């Protein structure tokens, strides 16, 4: 999404939140839309239920008798009623309440329950299948659908996949308690949330229980904010994970990163742009869409260059529907019939995501659908689903690439990546690996963070975030940590290259596509 390094965007050029480079802003939206935690508030307020079926034909009914409701409407109303209540979500440590016209989330651990960031309002009557759509301020709509006895599914418009819900009797009593301001309570919630949800302790060789034993005795009722923040930073920094962060205020925050990652600045980004332009060639015309986040250029030898610097923030409004419309406008301009079929068609395509801070995964899949004429699996996503067992996950949900119904490019592709290819930028890269012919990846390993950020609130009002998902290849591998490796390693935006206005990855891609190795049918 269009956010800063430590959430999804390292570039500082694509932030909806307006935060400076390197500063945690709004994370890529998770299925629960945990964009910013909210203060403790009252429980859901009941609102009026659906109005009756106005305008129904009353002919043939007895005078004064109630009109007969159509069977489909009765079914939808019954299904809507079946969604009222309290629901536990598989994974994510979340409860969902639906009452009247409202939806609310709660963030839970074994030691806590705090109101979550999502507070939605129903936008209309249930559809024929009983699905209810909720509008969420400053976020994409949420839809909840019945899925059998005491089961339901929750989906979000700008996220891939769905979440499974199971009915429970009521909210735990602690959900109604006033949060403690004691620093020890904040420590316990942060530690417990990581203990129950973070999937990568074993891979990173981190003993999280030992972390608690080391730092918990240092926290007392008199621990200052500065001291508490310093402890939290020491706890999560060794994870070297760009989807971890703690925010204690506008001038006190920390976000993780992989060792060796150099955060971009406006000055370094301008140098990168100049190096790319120099290696595209003098006189090459670059066309821009989406406020400069999408770029296309036609290179000699019928090679296309398509650069994507984020997967969100394509319009001033910043809504997902607007992003989709603007992306489609760009893709329709790039992948025309002339460029995809016939004697003038592209011989090769370079896709550059080396400076891509992420965004909404479906937008990346939308681009991938223009690059194939046959469906194929992109990845499978699963979340940690047992607070006591880090090896247990939700059932993996598959994501597939389905060809666009229109012009598609099926020729050779070179994908340029680097450690500033982050989150949704990495998922897009992964989604192309099953394509035929498979793209050639050139550059450096991606950053190595794939999960949505599980944004959480502490009882003292601070916020923090962590990943809780894995994105699997068809054979069950993940790239969290080291990132997706290139097939052709080259330097990416090093000081030496920028000083000389060189771009080894782009140069190598142009040569590879101009003289491709023989391939079979694709």
Report what the structure shows.
The chain is α+β, with helices and mostly antiparallel strands and 522 residues long. Among the domains are: 72-176, Lipocalin (Beta Barrel), CATH 2.40.128.490; 266-514, 2-enoyl-CoA Hydratase, Chain A, domain 1. The chain has helices at 71-83, 183-197, 208-215, 225-236, 266-280, 320-334, 337-340, 361-368, 424-431, 495-499, 504-514; strands at residues 85-89, 94-99, 102-109, 112-122, 132-135, 142-146, 151-156, 163-168, 245-249, 252-255, 286-289, 294-299, 303-308, 348-352, 376-383, 397-401, 413-417, 440-443, 453-457, 463-467, 469-472, 488-489. The chain has an eight-stranded antiparallel barrel. It has a seven-stranded mixed beta sheet with strand order 11-12-13-14-17-18-22. Strand 12 (294-299) and strand 13 (303-308) form a beta hairpin. Helix 8 (361-368) runs parallel beside helix 9. The longest helix has 15 residues, at 183-197. Mean pLDDT is 86; it is low at 1-69.
SSE topology sketch:
Layout: H1 71-83, E1 85-89, E2 94-99, E3 102-109, E4 112-122, E5 132-135, E6 142-146, E7 151-156, E8 163-168, H2 183-197, H3 208-215, H4 225-236, E9 245-249, E10 252-255, H5 266-280, E11 286-289, E12 294-299, E13 303-308, H6 320-334, H7 337-340, E14 348-352, H8 361-368, E15 376-383, E16 397-401, E17 413-417, H9 424-431, E18 440-443, E19 453-457, E20 463-467, E21 469-472, E22 488-489, H10 495-499, H11 504-514
Parallel strand pairs: 13-14, 14-17, 17-18, 18-22
Antiparallel strand pairs: 1-2, 1-8, 2-3, 3-4, 4-5, 5-6, 6-7, 7-8, 9-10, 9-20, 11-12, 12-13, 15-16, 15-21, 19-20
């Amino acid at each position: 999404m269009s956010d800063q390094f430590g959430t999804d965007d390292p570039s500082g050029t694509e932030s909806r939140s307006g935060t400076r480079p390197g500063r945690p802003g709004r994370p890529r939206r998770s299925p629960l839309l945990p964009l910013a935690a909210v203060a403790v508030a009252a429980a859901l307020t009941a609102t009026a239920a659906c109005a009756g079926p106005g305008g129904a034909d009353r002919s043939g009914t007895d005078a004064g008798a109630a009109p007969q409701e159509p069977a489909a409407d009765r079914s939808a109303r019954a299904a809507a009623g079946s969604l009222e209540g309290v629901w536990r979500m598989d994974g994510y440590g979340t409860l969902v309440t639906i009452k009247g016209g409202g939806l609310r989330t709660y963030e839970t651990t074994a030691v806590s329950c705090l109101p979550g960031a999502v507070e939605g309002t129903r936008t209309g009557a249930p559809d024929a299948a009983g699905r209810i759509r909720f509008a969420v301020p400053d976020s994409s709509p949420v839809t909840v659908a019945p899925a059998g006895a005491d089961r339901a599914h929750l989906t979000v418009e700008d996220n891939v996949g769905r979440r499974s819900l199971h009915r429970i009797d009521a909210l735990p009593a602690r959900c109604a308690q006033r949060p403690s301001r004691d620093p020890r309570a904040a420590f316990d919630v942060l530690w417990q949330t990581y203990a129950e949800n973070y999937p990568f302790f074993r891979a990173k060789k981190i003993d999280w229980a030992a972390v608690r034993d080391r730092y918990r005795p240092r926290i007392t009722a008199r621990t200052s904010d500065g001291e508490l923040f310093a402890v939290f930073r020491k706890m999560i920094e060794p994870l070297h994970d760009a989807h971890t962060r703690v925010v204690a205020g506008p001038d006190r925050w920390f976000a993780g990163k992989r060792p060796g990652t150099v955060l971009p600045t406006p000055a370094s980004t301008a140098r990168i742009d100049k190096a790319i332009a120099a290696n595209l060639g003098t006189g090459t015309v670059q066309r821009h869409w989406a406020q400069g986040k999408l770029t296309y250029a036609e290179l000699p030898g019928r090679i296309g260059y398509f650069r994507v610097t984020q997967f969100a923030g394509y319009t001033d409004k910043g809504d997902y529907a607007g992003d989709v419309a603007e992306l489609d406008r760009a893709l329709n301009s790039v992948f025309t019939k002339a460029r995809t079929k016939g004697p003038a068609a592209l011989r090769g395509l370079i896709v550059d995501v080396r400076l891509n801070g992420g965004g909404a995964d479906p937008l990346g899949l939308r681009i991938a659908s223009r690059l194939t004429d046959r469906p194929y699996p992109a990845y499978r996503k699963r979340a940690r689903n047992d607070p006591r067992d880090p090896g247990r996950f939700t059932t993996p949900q598959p994501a597939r690439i389905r060809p666009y119904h229109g012009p598609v490019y099926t020729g050779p592709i070179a994908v340029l990546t680097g450690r500033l290819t982050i989150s949704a930028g990495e998922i897009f890269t992964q989604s192309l690996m099953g394509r035929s012919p498979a793209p050639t990846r050139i550059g450096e390993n991606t950053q190595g963070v794939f999960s949505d950020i599980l944004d959480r609130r502490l009882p003292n009002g601070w916020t923090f975030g962590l990943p809780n998902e894995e994105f699997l290849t068809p054979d069950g591998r993940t790239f969290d940590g080291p990132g997706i490796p290139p097939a052709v390693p080259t330097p990416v935006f090093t000081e030496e290259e920028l000083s000389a206005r060189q771009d080894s990855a782009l140069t190598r891609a142009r040569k590879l596509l101009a003289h491709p190795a023989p391939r079979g049918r694709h």
